[in-house]
Amino acid sequence: MMTPEEHKARTARSYKLLLIFAMISMTMMFAGLTSALVVSKSRPDWLKDFQMPSSFFISTAIILLASLTIHLAKKAIKADDRTKTTLFLWLTLALGLGFVYFQFQGFGQLLQSHLYPTGGAGSITIAFLYILVYVHLAHLSGGIISLLIIIYNHFKQKYNSSQFLGIELGAMYWHFLDFLWIYLFLFLYFFK
Questions:
Q1: How far apart are CA 71 and CA 46, in angstroms?
Q2: How many domains does the chain have?
Q3: 3 φ, ψ to 5°?
Q4: What CATH number is given to the structural domain containing 14?
Q5: pLDDT (tens place) for every residue of the chain, 192 residues total
């Protein structure tokens, strides 16, 4: 017969493993998309002098800060500091929303530069950029929803120094999203 502690540890391992499998499948999807981009680079209509919108640089800094704040939230709950945990969870949410805002600002900058993803003036380069960013934003929306659930559970007093699995899983996913965006950003920035 399993003790409650053993059951809790086994459940935590199961949830972490499920999250890792989900992250691996997302990584494979983005690897496929970036591979398609590599193959498409040989097209004659590929933009070779494309400049990344400045808003994407800002959003990159923001998502790095969000990764730091979710880490600090996890560290604070492990120390049973509910006030700091609350602060860092809200900061992470605000930074996540700021990231989304600057991603859309980047799309606006592309449109102002007459770089369109479709239509007569459209470019395959810009189409790939839109696809990669939108798919990442779709995954980020899952991160924001999970963060809202974590904040709700935090206010319901479900987390403390001995029970913080929700925050830990949220932090794992948030760090993954951060890594994924850095990969995409560097790939798009250097692969021309």
A1: 40
A2: 1
A3: -80, 160
A4: 1.20.120.80
A5: 788 888 888 999 999 999 999 999 999 999 999 999 999 988 888 888 888 999 999 999 999 999 999 999 999 999 999 999 999 999 999 999 999 999 999 999 999 998 888 877 788 889 999 999 999 999 999 999 999 999 999 999 999 999 999 999 999 999 999 999 999 999 988 876
Report the predicted TM-score, pTM, of the whole model to 2 decimal places: 0.92
Domain containing residue 149: 4-190
Q: Is 157 left (phi over 0), alpha (psi -120 to 50) or beta?
A: left
Residue holding tokens 């923001």? 62
Q: Tokens 């990669």 — which residue?
A: 132
Q: Evaluate whether 140 touches 180 at the Cβ level (below 8 Å).
A: no
